[in-house]
Design a protein that fits this description.
The protein is of the alpha+beta class. The chain is built from 21 helices and 39 strands. The protein folds into six domains: about 1-40 and about 155-185, Phenylalanyl-tRNA Synthetase, Chain B, domain 1, CATH 3.30.56; about 45-150, Nucleic acid-binding proteins (OB fold (Dihydrolipoamide Acetyltransferase, E2P)), CATH 2.40.50.140; about 205-395, Phenylalanyl-tRNA Synthetase, Chain B, domain 3 (3-Layer(bba) Sandwich), CATH 3.50.40.10; about 405-470, Phenylalanyl-tRNA Synthetase, Chain B, domain 1, CATH 3.30.56.10; about 495-690, Bira Bifunctional Protein, Domain 2 (BirA Bifunctional Protein, domain 2); about 705-790, 2-Layer Sandwich (Alpha-Beta Plaits), CATH 3.30.70. The strands form ten sheets. It has a seven-stranded mixed beta sheet, with helices on both faces.
């Protein structure tokens, strides 16, 4: 809402300067966005009258004029404006005047003719942003010699207020004046709106077919208007200062009343109306050409104003081009209606529109305002355009009009919310100043909200009103009192943040992808997956819920590869959805993907690409954070999206927890990927569940190490060998690890050499060779019998 401070002060004028007034409005909950002067700085400009105009002898487009500027002697000035005429009142910049842009007026000689001053256009005075085609014509009663800036009231400011959606009652000067009056305990001087007596009894019929969406419709026929009349300068200026351009007197009056009272109006050309005005919902296939020239196909559920031939306007949004007022209009039908906010909400946006009318109707207009606005507009039209008004025609359905809102405010609840007790008399006075009917009872106050405050429905609304009128800055400032208990830190739990930081530390970037994926992509990676299908997806390629993190990570990989990023390391955490809606599992997962070179490009880095074991090492670093690496296992398995020979099922305490592997070549080819891709995903709950570490005293006795090299079948997992030797190595085995795998000369075909390092240490004594040899013999025997392993010579 943008309005003139000077206009506001004609209604209510507190003893505050401009900035203090803006601050007061802001502190009342109506945030002031900007305070700007209505015109640029200039001086030395007066009102003058053109006494004489003759053609310049040496220039076709220049005129030599003599103007009376109140100095006692006519002044000669050369003017090139096409609309200058004898008898006009004009703004005249005398010699020495300074116009906007620090433009100084000096004596000049133009084509041999002396010019002492300048007749000004609106743009030259900073009253219009666009260049004006001619000089600014002033009313005939403008006083010659009067300072133009003072006479026009240009030492004024526009105040722009950013209103919350619930305060539609302040989308008018009347609403803003009402607020300022309440805040300063001042009486507001309202315009005296008197009913206009009808001079003829002709009416135009009105039929409301959708009373629920249009509970009140008022119309009036005004005959013989002069659309060519000139809108008064005072009205043009008030519209300009409110951000609205003057168009013609009929449109200007409807816009003016909307700004003044908050009621949008519309005027139809009676010559383009047929039969009756009908308020109804749009029908299938109907179209409408709007005032801005846009042709729209009306959708079901759109409330329209129509006649017997078809739609004339989108109700509460914009009128149609063919029914609007034009230069040939002689009779008009003036509309003033109340449309239910839910009937208008979203309609303008649905057609790509946003108008001042829709902005107000969507937020709510006073249901009792339509008649007053129609009378006000009629009076202004008769003053400016003349005409003969007919009687008002009203169609109202009282059962659909907003009902009175009665709200109970408890004194105890008010004190609890504000943190202080207010005198009962002050609360009563605040509510009454806000226009409410108030009854006081033992518990507090019972208030009836006025028709313009449709946002007051519950007790908290009244508390807010009392608080802001009393003054937020007058409420006590207290620190919150609470007993703050330390939250227990579950040491066995690995926070998700630590897992994320670990992945970032290992060179990964976190990806955030949609929970919806393309069915084709999910089908390529997980052909047997079952997940919910969206009934109303935002797009065709986001129509199913993801059953795995793989589709989103692969899509992110494609996005990076298409932008010349050949080394990609991504991870993601999020929910996956498995099963139908009636038996849906939502599992939190952590997934990762690597592609491209093993090391970042550099002079010391080789060009080897990542493989299965690179990503497995990254995953094992996460598993180790839980403190229980021994509860995890990797076993060979087959997954439809992963390479059969480079794929493993991840087990946690013997149960499946995830998958890791290289993307299947056939799947890679189907997706158009040229590089090998390695992925994993693991259930997040298994990663975050860990083990509390405990201190073990360090042994003071020496450790004993034995290195054993076994010849085993080349397909035998090393984990099987490690499990066997740990089962036979006894309780004093402190470390076992793989340090070499060899195939080649000296090793039979189909076999591999696996070298393991074993370390023993006793906490209270030195182990002897005999004990160690017995354990080694047990390991060799068990490995030979169950795994076919032979000790390599």
């Amino acid at each position: 809402m943008k309005f003139s401070e000077q206009w506001l002060r004609e209604w209510v004028s507190p003893q505050l300067d401009t900035q203090a007034l803006a601050d007061q409005i802001t502190m009342a909950g109506l945030e002031v966005d900007a305070v700007d002067p209505v015109a640029a700085a200039f001086d030395g400009v007066v009102v003058a009258e053109v006494l004489e105009k003759i053609q310049h002898p040496d220039a076709d487009k220049l005129n030599v004029c003599r103007v009376e500027d109140g100095s006692g002697e006519p002044v000669q000035v050369v003017c090139g404006a096409p609309n200058v005429a004898v008898g006009q009142k004009v703004p005249f910049a005398r010699v020495g005047a300074v116009l906007p842009g620090d433009f100084k007026i000096r004596k000049a000689t133009l084509r041999g003719q002396e010019s002492r001053g300048m007749i000004c256009s609106a743009s030259e005075l900073g009253l219009e942003e666009e260049t004006s085609p001619g000089i600014l014509e002033l009313p005939a009663d403008a006083p010659v010699g009067e300072d133009f800036r003072g006479w026009m009231g240009l030492s004024d400011h526009t105040i722009e207020v950013d209103l919350t959606p619930n305060r539609g009652d302040c989308l008018s000067l009347k609403g803003m004046a009402r607020e300022v009056g309440v805040l300063n305990r001042l009486t507001v001087t309202w315009p005296d709106v008197q009913p206009v007596a009808a001079t003829h009894d002709e009416i135009f019929p009105v039929r409301v077919e959708d009373a629920e969406h249009c509970p009140r419709y008022i119309g009036r026929l005004i005959k013989g208007v002069d659309v060519t009349a000139e809108t008064p300068l005072w009205m043009v200026e008030r519209l300009r200062r409110s951000g609205i351009r003057s168009i013609d007197p009929v449109v200007d009056v409807t816009n003016y009343v909307m700004l003044e009272l908050g009621q949008p109006l519309h005027a139809f050309d009676l010559a383009n109306l047929h039969g009756a005005v009908v308020v109804r919902l749009a029908r299938v296939g109907e179209q409408l050409v709007l005032l801005d020239g846009q042709k729209v196909a009306l959708t079901d559920g759109t409330l329209v104003i129509a006649d017997e031939r078809g739609p004339l306007a989108i109700a509460g949004v914009m009128g149609g081009e063919h029914s609007g007022v034009g230069a040939e209009t002689r009779d008009i039908f003036l509309e003033s209606a109340f449309f239910a906010p839910l009937a208008i909400a979203g309609q303008a946006r649905g057609y790509g529109l946003h108008t001042d009318a829709s902005h107000r109707f969507e937020r709510g207009v006073d249901a009792e305002l339509a008649r007053e606005a129609a009378e006000r507009a009629t009076g202004l039209l008769l003053q400016i355009t003349g005409g003969e008004p007919g009687p008002l025609v009203e169609v109202a359905s009282h059962e659909y009009l907003p009902a009175e809102q009665r709200v109970h405010l408890r004194a105890t609840r008010l004190e609890q919310a504000l943190g202080k007790a207010l005198p009962a008399e002050e609360v009563t006075e605040i509510l009454q100043r806000l226009g409410m009917a108030v009854d006081v009872d033992d518990q507090g106050w019972r208030a009836v909200a006025p028709s313009w405050r449709f946002d007051i429905v519950i007790e908290e609304d009244l508390i807010e009103e009392v608080a802001r009128i009393h003054g937020y800055n007058r409420l006590p400032v207290r620190r919150p009192q609470a007993r703050l208990e330390l939250r227990p830190d579950h040491e066995a739990h690995t926070p998700l943040g630590r897992l994320r930081r670990q992945m970032v530390a290992r060179g990964f970037y976190e990806a955030v992808t949609y929970s919806f994926v393309a069915p084709e992509l999910q089908g390529a990676l997980l052909p047997e997956a079952v997940s919910p299908v969206l009934a109303n997806p935002i797009s065709a390629d986001l129509s199913v819920m993801r059953a795995s993190l793989f589709p989103g990570l692969v899509r992110a990989l494609e996005h990076n590869l298409n932008r010349q990023q050949t080394r990609v390391r991504l991870f993601e955490t999020g929910l996956v959805f498995r099963g139908e809606l009636d038996d849906l599992q939502q599992l939190p997962m952590l997934g990762a993907l690597v592609c491209g070179s093993r090391e970042p490009e550099g002079w010391s880095a080789n060009r080897e690409t990542v493989d299965f074991f690179d990503l497995k090492g990254d995953l094992e670093s996460l598993l180790a954070m839980g403190g229980e690496p021994d509860v995890w296992r990797f076993e060979p398995a087959e997954h439809p999206a992963l390479h059969p020979g480079q794929c493993a099922r991840i087990l946690h305490r013997g149960e499946e927890a995830g998958w890791i592997g290289t993307l299947h070549p056939a799947v890679r080819a189907r997706l158009g990927l040229k590089l090998d891709v390695v992925l994993f995903e693991v259930r997040l709950d298994t990663l975050t569940h860990g083990h509390v570490p405990a201190f073990t005293p360090l042994s003071r006795f020496p450790e004993v190490r034995r290195d054993l090299a076994f010849l085993v079948d080349e397909h035998l997992p090393v984990q099987a060998l490690l499990d066997t030797l740990r089962g036979q190595a006894g309780e004093w085995l402190t470390e076992s690890h793989l340090f070499d795998v060899y195939q080649g000369k000296g090793v039979p075909e189909g076999r591999k050499s696996v070298a393991l390092g074993l370390t023993w240490q006793h906490p209270s004594r030195t182990l002897n060779d005999e004990e160690i040899n017995q354990l080694v013999d047990a390991i060799i025997t068990e490995s030979r019998q169950h795994l076919g392993a032979e000790l390599r010579g």
